[in-house]
Design goal:
This protein is an alpha/beta fold. The protein is 32% helix and 21% strand. Bound molecules: adenosine-5'-diphosphate. It comes from Sarocladium strictum (Black bundle disease fungus).
Length: 511
């Protein structure tokens, strides 16, 4: 057995609906894993919470479960050289620094309770200049608005703040803190891909920006913010305090979308990935300097692997992607499950003139049209279910093209290839349609656990399992499929122009 075949890296994937632990070999194959769903708490419309203790216990259960399965295969736990963390971004946890006890449920990234507060902030002098400093516009999405809501509305949080005991963190920080043993060891850190989602970090320096924090009227002497450290580091993240991997070092940390970009090996400028889940998240590597968008995209840190290995990304998201397929299953009863979508769409040759703008809750990047609603155009007596199925899958592909066009305009770089993952990429028809509409290759890896792989890469790079990005060239290459464009550019442009016309016509439906 070579040294390589005895070396493994673990990845904690703490997502919105479940936690997982995966153990990868040096080829990027999953050799063991364990997954656990946890409770979603919706106290009011628009509110979404998680129990912070359950986030941690679900992770430790997954570690123990995966290590057990790993050892059943004849491996031993000390072959796991390091652990990486990837996590749901923006979700906010507050706790008392003296006790290590959470003061409120975690407020999840999707939560919109801070809407009124954000409206007020937008009126404050200087609000339009924030994006230039931190990459994000004001909205309910970044962690800062969740923290401000907690400070205004929860007495325990306000009291801890007044006493100078309030600790604030995103899920990466909370997990690292707890997995290291909590307040006894006080490992209190965050990586730049997570910290860049708070609006407190300066996108250029990757340090907290005092002017931003002052603008939000937060007193730095009263709230503890985690130290921002590189995404890949041998010491900063400490080690697991107990459980099956007690003593194993945590050496990597990346927010979920950044981790997917790393897992797709999007290390160089001009590479992009799209994760086709319930919604879509596109990240486009723009290189070692941030690009502030003038086309409705977010600017974020892609990853920080130390000197010379720090990259920025432009980010765009689509609100409705896989959920439009579920809409055909659950609401219209067109098909019995999502995997049948392609078969239904293939019962017809094309969309038959139908365009479906799936703006169920308005349109996100790059359009940002709040008052658009789902609209189906071009229906005639000829229209079949298959045409609507095609128009549904095309809606996600058109929006992806719109975002990629904006990314190219903002960055001045041409996209060379799109790497894909997420549930919807299982459909060959969707991926072929995507390639046709963007006119470049779409690359779908064989192993689709790219988010967890990204966390494993961050940890493995620090641990010396891989030393340089080039060492990863053979990782996760088996079983990949490349979809090449099959229609001329003029045809793709014509179809896209029709989509854009439909987008304009879907405006203003909701008052
Ligand atoms: P999330 O992580 O957001 O829960 P997933 O990456 O698991 O999402 O993807 C789930 C979504 O993908 C669902 O909305 C589902 O409708 C869609 N999906 C899964 N398989 C297919 C398929 N074969 N064709 C089209 N859509 C699919």
């Amino acid at each position: 057995m070579s040294a390589n075949s005895t070396t493994f890296v673990g990845a904690i994937d703490q997502g919105t609906t479940s936690s997982r632990f995966l153990i990868f070999n040096v080829s990027g194959e999953v050799v063991a894993s364990h997954q656990l769903e946890f409770k979603q708490i919706y106290p009011q419309p628009g509110w979404h919470e998680h129990d912070p203790e359950e986030l941690v216990s679900s992770v430790t259960t997954c570690i123990d479960g995966a290590v057990k399965a790993f050892e059943t295969q004849g491996h031993s736990r000390d072959q796991i050289k390091a652990v990486g963390i990837t996590n749901q971004r923006e979700t906010t946890v507050v706790w008392d620094k003296t006790t290590g006890k959470a003061l409120y449920n975690a407020i999840v990234w999707t939560d919109t309770r801070a809407q009124e507060l954000v409206r007020r902030l937008k009126h404050r002098l200087g609000s339009s200049e924030l994006t230039q400093r931190c990459g994000l516009p004001l909205s309910t999405y970044p962690s800062c608005s969740k923290l401000l809501w907690l400070l205004e509305n929860v007495k325990e949080v306000k009291d801890a703040y007044e006493k100078g005991n309030l600790a604030f963190g995103t899920v990466d920080t909370w997990l690292t803190y707890k997995l290291n043993g909590g307040c006894a060891n006080d490992v209190f850190v965050s990586d730049p891909s997570n910290a860049s989602r708070t609006m407190f970090m300066n996108i250029e320096t990757l340090n907290y920006d005092e002017e931003l924090i002052d603008w939000f009227r937060i007193d730095r002497s009263k709230v503890h913010l985690p130290k921002i450290v590189p995404s890949s580091d041998t010491e900063a993240y400490g080690s697991l305090h107990d459980g099956a991997l007690k003593g194993t070092k945590i050496m990597g940390c990346l927010g979920d979308q950044s981790a997917a970009l790393v897992g797709q090996k999007g290390f160089t400028p001009g590479l992009a990935k799209n994760t086709y889940g319930t919604g879509c998240f596109l990240l486009y590597n723009v290189g070692p300097k941030p690009v502030i968008s003038s086309h409705g995209l977010l600017s974020t840190v892609a990853f920080d692997f130390g000197e010379g290995k720090r990259m920025y990304a432009l980010e765009g998201s689509i609100a409705v992607a896989g959920s439009s397929v579920k809409f055909l299953v659950d609401n219209l009863g067109f098909i019995e499950n999502s995997s049948k979508l392609s078969a239904l769409a293939e019962t017809v040759e094309d969309n038959g003139g139908v365009t479906f703008v799936t703006a169920f809750s308005g349109l996100f990047a790059p359009y940002w049209i709040d008052d658009a609603r789902g609209t189906i155009f071009g229906v005639t007596a000829y229209t079949q279910k298959g045409h609507i199925a095609r128009a549904t899958l095309e809606a996600t592909c058109f929006q992806t093209r719109a975002i990629l066009d904006s990314m190219e305009k903002d960055s001045g770089q041409k996209l060379t290839e799109l790497a894909v993952d997420g549930g919807m990429c299982n459909s060959d028809l969707i991926m072929q349609t995507q390639s046709d509409l963007i006119g470049i290759n779409v690359n779908r890896p064989g192993m689709r656990e790219t988010t967890a792989l990204g966390a494993a890469i961050a940890a493995g790079m620090a641990a010396g399992v891989w030393e340089k990005f080039e060492d990863l060239k053979d990782v996760n290459v088996d079983g990949s499929t490349v979809f090449k464009p099959k229609i001329p550019k003029s045809k793709a442009d014509e179809r896209f122009a029709r989509w854009e016309k439909a987008v304009q016509m879907s405006k203003g439906w909701a008052n």
